Structure formats: structure tokens, C-alpha cells
Amino acid sequence: MNARKQTDGRWAPWWVYVVIIVGSNYVKQYFLQDQPVIANVAVTLVLAGGLFLGITAVYRKMRGVNQPRR
């Protein structure tokens, strides 16, 4: 049995989520730097959630859920 945990290919690699979400957060900070903290937090939560769902949807569409992972 393989020592690495086998996944079913439904999720993109962790680094894809990190790079895209952190990068978009830097861009968001540039535009919202003078806004109140609560607005910044609300936009961050919506942005991160939307990006997470978007990344997952694009990855599944490109890869196919039933396709075996290498």
C-alpha cells in the first residue's frame, strides 16, 4: 500500500488555493486599505469563499472527477 494518502482527485493541490487566495488578498488590500475593518473582513470572507469554490469547480472541470490521479 502506498504510504501517501490517496485522494479521489476532487480537490486541487493545496498550493493552488494558497497562491490564488493570498495573491488576491494582496490586491484587495490595495483597494480597501482605507475602508473600515468590518468591510475589509466581509470582503475577505466573500472573496476567499468564492475563490475556493471557483478553483474547485475549474479544477474538477479540467481534470474530471472520475479520472484517476497520478
Question: Your description of this structure?
Answer:
Helix 1 runs antiparallel to helix 2. This protein is an all-alpha fold and 70 residues long. It contains 2 helices and no strands. The mean pLDDT is 85. Keywords: Membrane, Transmembrane, Transmembrane helix. The chain crosses the membrane at residues 12-31, 37-59.
The residue ranges in which pLDDT falls below 50 over 5 or more consecutive positions are none
Gross morphology is elongated
Helical fraction equals 55-70%
Average pLDDT score: 85
Q: What is the first-to-last residue Cα distance?
A: 15 Å
**How many helical elements?**
2
Supply the number of structural domains: 1
Structural class: mainly alpha
Strand tally: 0
Computed CA radius of gyration, to the nearest angstrom:
16 Å
Portion in beta strands? under 5%
Secondary-structure element order, N to C:
HH
Q: Give the biggest sheet.
A: none
Provide key terms for this protein.
70 residues, mainly alpha
Nutshell version of this structure?
The protein has 70 residues and is mainly alpha-helical.
SSE inventory with pairings:
Elements: H1 14-32, H2 37-63
Helix pairs in contact: 1-2
